[in-house]
Amino acid sequence: MHRRHFLGASLAAGLLAASPLKVAFADAATDKRLVLIVLRGAMDGLGAVAPYADPDYRSIRGELALAEPGQPDGLLDLDGYFGLHPALAPIHGWWAEKQLLAVHAIATPYRERSHFDAQDLLESGGAKPTGQKTGWLNRALDQVHGHGTGLGLALGQGVPLVMRGAVPVASWAPSPLPEPTTDFLNRVMDIYQKDKVLGPALSSGLGIADMAQMASGVPAGQPKPKDRQLMATTAGRMLADPAGPRVAVMDMQGWDTHVGQGSIKGRLPNALTDLAEVMGLLREGLGEAWSKSVIAVVTEFGRTVRPNGTGGTDHGTAGVALLAGGAIEGGRMLGKWPGLRDDKLYEGRDLAPTTDMRALLKAVLKDHLGVSGRALDAHVFPDGRNVRPLADLIRT
Amino acid sequence: MVMTGPASAALAAHATARFGYGAAPGDLAQISSDPRGWVEAQLGGLPPGLPAGFIDHPGSAPRLMELLAVRKLGQGEEAMARRKALQQAYRSDAAIRTRVAAGSDRPLIERLTQFWSNHFTVSTQRGEVAPLALAFENEAIRPYVLGRFEEMARAAILHPAMLVYLDNAQSIGPNSKAGQKRKRGLNENLGREALELHTLGVHGGYDQDDVRALALILTGWTIDRQDGDGTAFFNPNTHEPGPKTLLGRTFPEEGAAEAPAAITMMANHKGTAKHVAVKLARHFIADDPPASAVNALERKFKETGGDLGAVTATLVGLDAAWDEPLAKLRSPNDFLTAALRATQLPLDEKQVVNALNLLGQMPFAAPSPAGWPDRAADWAGPDAVVRRVDWSLALGQRAGGRVDARLLLAATLGDLADAELVQMVARAPSPAEALALALSSPAFQRR
To answer: CB contact, 8 Å: A93 with chain B?
Structure first.
């Protein structure tokens, strides 16, 4: 029994006021796709995209410095000054295709070093971590034609703050549990009808689960993918479906590299390998829709420029953000490079921020999803009116 | 206050949900004459030793010795096998912990233990923590849930599991003997989280200099030494010499005595009282707890110097604890525990571990040192709710008619089950679906 049958039956019964797919079926609000990948724990920006030509790079990075492009285990050159970590090799070719760009020395307005406050601010889009309950991506969806209903998808069991808010969004993760019958699910919906939390969540979850089931087929004879791989492939395919969601958010963990960060081998290279794989699978799953897609990769802050005492890095300030996809004007390094000289560092220890994260996010929402500048200021980033969106990120 | 009559009976289910893991069959009948008294009686001192379910648990020392031995073995076949055994031990621990909570006759103590162990999170995100995590909870948290907060803080922050998890075991004072000889040095991870998460709270009034000072104070506290016995110990060779100034107070050079003194000061800081009060009220009362509840807990914490027995008694005595509706969504862990308690189904170790994984809350696997989140919005994602329903049906099918859901509703939810639910369950086409409906119901999902 497919859950779509449940969905159809329930729509007929008028139970699914908040179905994630209702509007999308009838009236695609946008044909653009956006995937936001949140790297939780603070990715080391200088490890992912290294300024190998900066005169202070090698001395200040010490054991964490990577070899120059062309040398064994060397960086993968981007623009003659910056290089990509070799663990990101699978997406290095995207640079030449102009489908990858990086913004360095980027940071949210947050200047302390708590993961949890910083993530709160990265996701709420505010200027101060004040425990806001809605995220900028949900508020942006509200500004898309049809108020974004049916467009949002969180990859994982839950919905992260960035995607929470007035617009109902779906969430999905691979599950081995057997599917109940339509009849049983209708009974559960009955007892959830008056429940403002469980009712909408269940109807939304069932709708997307059916679509995911159809999108997640693994060809016979291939090894069973890991959950992370299955999630990325399936998400790409769901986003590619004309009746599917348009905007997805996915978390990745494992970036808090206080110890054993490593240059070529270690925790950061492992995490970067996973990231490149996820990005590659998303592209594969998106298929032709890749040309209309943007993947934005962000993290809550950067890490200390110098290695700490235990082969890792501690919490810092500015870091790097990546943008990929067929819809971007890539092959470029963006952001003003502040340099790594001692007196150029923020508080003597961190990469100094020169680009506001919201300038990147606003540009993507405005030029890719078509959210108006006025709506961005009024609803999406009300504390960031003075932050100008980066220009020319999106291919026109 | 002893209440009798219908009002008291109605509060019985409320009491088991608010302060426990719901009712087991028989609980409501037993406590209905005095639900509040049932809760209060649980605060009367800790029972000697650990709950019986943990009797065979080796504790952290043998586990740590094994971890260190395996580290030294490197990558060979034997090392792999022993590493696997340690991971298996963790899975057993997770299942035992769930069963102990589900079967407890003092469920409030289990709730408190899990609450505080989440406050002082150690997580398997760092793989080596896994075999130490339950021991951490039993050694550093459980003995103090009705004791002094500062004792719990000292025990937790200096426990081997925490020293491993937040990297302090490898942190070295830059000017210590070892720091002068080697390239290794300071790691400020534990220093930061102890201030931000364990004590003062992120807006509690500390800065980057305090983080560094505490990190320096904590240098020396580690786990690995020649002829060690599996406990944490202080290595003077890696401890940063000289005085350190933390939160305006200067700690003179005192070696091993510095960290306990600093933690004691932090535990008694006014920011800590506020931080702890908010978290307790959010956990037991409501996602957005009434200010009066938070204030009462904060005041009691300050008055008593962080006497958690007194603070918990204040919590139990709050009007809000009895008047506010049961609006908290059970976390997956609490839902599973409540389901086991209500159904009394004998799930084996593998089934419990699978359920914890499927529902998304394997014990001691929180995504960050902040621990598991504690608001409905964090647990009510569409896919998460689908899983609860799917899993409830799978459990119903496994029960194979051994549980009569109609009786279960009456015996465990009592008045919390409305007439509509009672009717839906009675009309379900099979015992499996009846049980699944009862467990999925809004009343069972909340506490």
So the answer is: no
